[in-house]
Each structure stands twice: as C-alpha cells, then as structure tokens.
Automatic annotation (TrEMBL):
Xref: PANTHER family: PEPTIDE CHAIN RELEASE FACTOR RF3 (PTHR43556)
Keyword GTP-binding on entry: yes
Species assigned in the record: Streptomyces aidingensis
Cellular compartments annotated: Cytoplasm
One GO cellular component term: cytosol
Family as reported in the entry's similarity comment: Belongs to the TRAFAC class translation factor GTPase superfamily. Classic translation factor GTPase family. PrfC subfamily.
Protein name: Peptide chain release factor 3
Segments forming domain Tr-type G: 19-288
Alphabetized Pfam families for the sequence: EF-G_D2, GTP_EFTU, RF3_C
CDD domains: RF3 (cd04169)
Amino acid sequence: MTAPTSTAAAPGTAAGEAARRRTFAVISHPDAGKSTLTEALALHARAITSAGAVHGKGDRRGVTSDWMEMERARGISVTSAVLQFDYRGRVLNLLDTPGHADFSEDTYRVLAAVDCAVMLIDAAKGLEEQTRKLFDVCRHRGIPVITFINKWDRPGRDALELLDEIEREFRLRPTPVTWPVGIAGHMRGLADAREPGTMLRCTRAPGGEKAAIEEALTAAVAEAEFGEEWRTATEELELLAGTGAAHDQADFLAGRSTPVFFGAALTNIGVRLLLDAVVDLAPAPAPREQAGGAAPRPLDGEFSGLVFKVQANMDRAHRDRIAFLRVCSGVFERGMTVTRAASGRPFSTKYAHSVFGQDRTSVERAYPGDVVGLVNATALRVGDTLYTGRKAEFPPMPTFAPEHFAIVRPADIAKSKQFRRGIAQLDEEGVVQVLVSDARGEQAPVLAAVGPMQFDVVRHRMEHEFSAAVKLEPLAYTCARRTDAEGGAALNRSRLVHGEAMTRVKDGEILALFPSRWHVGSFEREFPRSPLEPLIAAH
Ligand code: G4P
C-alpha cells in the first residue's frame, strides 16, 4: 500500500507539514472501547507511557473539570480531548468524540474538523445505534472510514457475518486488510491480506499496558501451530479476494469501501496495524470548501481555521473558555492577529494552547490539520471562521433537530443576573439551544436539546459554575421545523394545530415546535403556503 498523499511539498511549509498530518476521530457506540483504543493508539505512538493516562482511568492522570464529576459518576465521556502525537514521521491529531447518544451534536461538530474516521465495532454486538448515526454523518460529510472490529479476545460474532452486516446496512464494501486467525474469544493472531501466507502472532505484553508482542510466522509454522484455525482464516481470505474485497484507495476515499482491521484494544492487539493504516491510508488535510462556492484556499495560502467546539471551565485550575480551532490553510503562529469572519473584527491569538488531556502547553505554530485551543475566546462561536488576509468563510455548521424542550427558570429569583449570564454562555457553547417565544417572553427561555442528558449538564453547570440553580419544566413538543415569520404567526394563531413558534436567540431563525409529526402534517394541510423546513435529523 502506498501513501495516498504526496509528501513532495517542502517540510516546514504549510503544504509540506499538511502532507505529514493525519487528523481523525474514533466513532463508536458507548462501551465499544473507544477510550481504551484511544489510549492504546497514543501508547503505540509513545505519546503516553502507560495506558490510562488519557482518560484518567484507574485514578491516574486525566482530564478533570467540574461537570466531568457527573461524567465520571455516569461512566461516560461527555467532553473532548485532542491528542497530538508523532508516529512514523507523521503527526497524528486524534480528536476524541463524546460517546453518549445525547451528546451527538457535539460529536457531529468534531467530525467537521477531521479528515478520516475510525469506526470501532464491538465484535459481539456489531453495528449499534450510535455507530449508525455517526456513520451517517461521515457519509454526509464525505469522511472516509476505516473499520476496527474490537474485542476479538472474547466471544463474539462470526467475522464474515460482521462484514456482511456492514455491507448490507451501510452499502459500504468492507475490504479486510487483516483477518483474525481463530474465532472471537480464541484469537491466535492476524493474517494479512496484503501478504498472503504469513501470519502475525500477537501476544499480550505482561501487564497489558504495553504494545503487544508481534511475531511474524511463515505459513508452515502457522499451519503446524494452529492447523484448522489457520486454514479457515486463509480460506476465508481467499474467498474474500475472489469477491473483489481487496482494498482500493480511490474507493475508500470516495466512501464506497472501508478497510477493515481486527483486534483487541484492551490487549493492544492489532492496534499498531490500525495506526499504520491511519498513516498509510487516511487522507492528509486538503484545501477546504468555502461558503458560497468560493474557491478553496490553497494549503500554502494565507491562514484560515474553523472553530468546531467551544468549551468553558475545562478544569478547576483554569477557569476559562477554550475555542478549539482546526487550522485549514496556511501557518498559524501564536500572537498573530486574525479576523473573525462573522463580525469582521480582529482577534488576538496570544493565548493559544495545545490541549492534551489536562495538560496545556503554548502552541507557537500550527499547520493545516492541527487543532489549537484558544483560551479566553469569549468572542468566538462554534462554526466561526478565522483568517488572515483575504476573507475566508467556511459553510455554516449544521445544527441538529432538537427533540426535547423545557422552560428554564432560576430557582432563586435573586440570582437572575447569574442565570442570564449562564444561559447565554451555555447557548454560545452549544451545550443547548436557547429559544424565546413571543408568548413566554425572554424571562422564560426555552431550552432545546437533541437528547435529555443535555438538560442534566445545564442543571449541573448552572448550579456549580454560575451559582444559579435552575428549575426545568418540560414541554410536550418533540418536532422542530424551520419556518418564516408568517408561518410562525400562523402557528401561534392556529387553534386546531397545537404548536408554538419560537425564535432561536442566536441567529433569529424561527422554529415551529409541534408535539408530534402528525401535528406537523396537519399544520401543513391547514397552512399549505407556510414553509416548514426540516432541520438535520440527529438520527
Ligand atoms: P467507550 O469509551 O467506547 O465507552 O468504551 P471503553 O473504552 O470505556 O470500554 C468499555 C469496556 O470494554 C471496558 O470494560 C473496557 O475495558 C472493555 N474493552 C475495551 N476494549 C476491549 C477489548 O479489546 N477486549 C475486551 N475484552 N474488553 C475491552 P469495563 O469493564 O466496562 O471497564 P474497565 O473497568 O475495564 O475500565
């Protein structure tokens, strides 16, 4: 397999450095092993010295913050860390994505900042709900996907059956690069489709926190040691080769096929091969499409970057607000003054950091594909474009259709000021959307969420960060549609169709809220001339 991108551009230039970069995320259903795999990848790349350092498992060093207490209590990951590490002369940027379904909106935004995704599948469970949703977003955004079938060290499903499921459900051709010798739960090693007749025996290193021990075996040795299991693996690989399941780089980049790897993140088996695949197969950053059909800015051109995430109070020691910026073109240099496309105002980048778990170090330079944390970036919003020189602007980030709505009020009326500040902040960060209706007024904003857990985060953060405990009163709406002022007025006037028009605080867009799809249909019949536009569905 050859590297998909040219590294001919001079090192040190934006294009040369971009060619060395691979910016990717792991997408999976909760519990498939994403945290474990992230640690294993970083461990292989020597970014950390022992597993557990990234996510703070086992009370080792980790990301901490106020609302992460809640995340720890629930055993889920709701915030994102960005890991950068060197591997085989390349720079890998791994953007961690929140796993819980309720945080899908956050995850979708992270996917706007990557060039490739690793789809992690639990060998026993196959495709799961969140995998499906995230895969849809990758397809929608044209992000190529590498598949890793995890937990092969314990009983699971048949390998061919798992491939069949991917092909059937995703209309995506699986092209196995490695193939397990031994069924799930009896993993002997991996056969490599690129080198028929060889086997890699993989053994867990003592303690399980080090890279697995790998030993290349000839076919004769594999046959002698593993007999039937080795023969089955080679037969299956031959069968697959006969059906045209060989990796094809152009098909992969076009989203028509996915190279498949097998392994066990927990014991680091197959992880090195996956990391090699990220280097060899994943695309390097490319010039990015601009809003309104403007020509993409060349990688070697002036600086431009996209804010894909804004997060406040990442940990107690740093009470601040970080905007995560993906560099899209040119060279980012700390201290440079950039322009925020939305306002045309200058923004100083004096406080630029790389964020690695809880550690921060100043970033002096960053290249296309890199992620920079801009500290105290109160003026920045998710979806913002920053640039130098000629104006650049990337297409707006999609917002996802909220399905849960609740009126929010301060528990203590004396805390109204803190309440307003907190709600505005959470809206800007995109933790929830904040809506206001004519009927209820600004004193009783309505929170709109993709999943109900977003409300828990609001409750928790309002109380602990903004000292303004809140009361939430759920509203019986489940569907939101975009409409215009006339459509909103029609909805508010209508007695036959239950619903309510709300204005999104941030951009003045009018949303029509309905209790069910059935109500949407009856509104459309009653007011055929009022436009109702669906928002992007989160599933
Ligand atoms: P997530 O971030 O996708 O939610 O998953 P996470 O890595 O936390 O893994 C979920 C569970 O699956 C963990 O077990 C983890 O140890 C286990 N796991 C991950 N990869 C593998 C693997 O390759 N093989 C096996 N056998 N297990 C794996 P847990 O008991 O829930 O948590 P823990 O106490 O081990 O941390």
